[in-house]
Amino acid sequence: MILSLKRFLIGRPLKTTEAGEQKLTKAKALAILSSDALSSVAYGPEQILIVLVTIGAAAFWYSIPIAIGVLILLSALILSYRQIIFAYPQGGGAYVVSKSNLGINPGLIAGGSLLVDYILTVAVSVSAGTDAITSAFPALHGFNVQIAIVFVIFLTILNLRGVTESASVLAYPVYLFVLALFILIGVGLYRILTGGVSPELHTPIGTPVAGISLFLLLRAFASGSSALTGVEAISNAIPNFKDPAPNNAAKTLMMMGALLAILLSGIVILAYNYGITPRAEVTVVSQIAEATFGRSYMYFFIQATTALILILAANTGYSAFPLLAVNLAKDKFIPRMFLSRGDRLGYSNGIIILGFASILLILAFLAETEHLIPLYAVGVFVPFTLSQTGMMVKWYREKPEGWLPKFIINTIGAFISLMVTLIFFITKFSQVWSILIFVPIIVFVFHRIRKHYEDVGNQLRIQTCEASMPIEGNVIIVPVAGITTVVENTLKYAKGLSPDQIIAVYVAFEREDEKKLEEKWKKWQPDVRLVTLHSHYRSIIKPLTKFIDTVEHKAGEANHQVTVVIPQFIPKKGWHNILHNQSGIMIRTLLMLRRNVVISTVPYHLIK
Amino acid sequence: MILSLKRFLIGRPLKTTEAGEQKLTKAKALAILSSDALSSVAYGPEQILIVLVTIGAAAFWYSIPIAIGVLILLSALILSYRQIIFAYPQGGGAYVVSKSNLGINPGLIAGGSLLVDYILTVAVSVSAGTDAITSAFPALHGFNVQIAIVFVIFLTILNLRGVTESASVLAYPVYLFVLALFILIGVGLYRILTGGVSPELHTPIGTPVAGISLFLLLRAFASGSSALTGVEAISNAIPNFKDPAPNNAAKTLMMMGALLAILLSGIVILAYNYGITPRAEVTVVSQIAEATFGRSYMYFFIQATTALILILAANTGYSAFPLLAVNLAKDKFIPRMFLSRGDRLGYSNGIIILGFASILLILAFLAETEHLIPLYAVGVFVPFTLSQTGMMVKWYREKPEGWLPKFIINTIGAFISLMVTLIFFITKFSQVWSILIFVPIIVFVFHRIRKHYEDVGNQLRIQTCEASMPIEGNVIIVPVAGITTVVENTLKYAKGLSPDQIIAVYVAFEREDEKKLEEKWKKWQPDVRLVTLHSHYRSIIKPLTKFIDTVEHKAGEANHQVTVVIPQFIPKKGWHNILHNQSGIMIRTLLMLRRNVVISTVPYHLIK
Question: With an 8 Å Cβ cutoff, are B335 and A468 in contact?
Answer without folding.
Answer: no
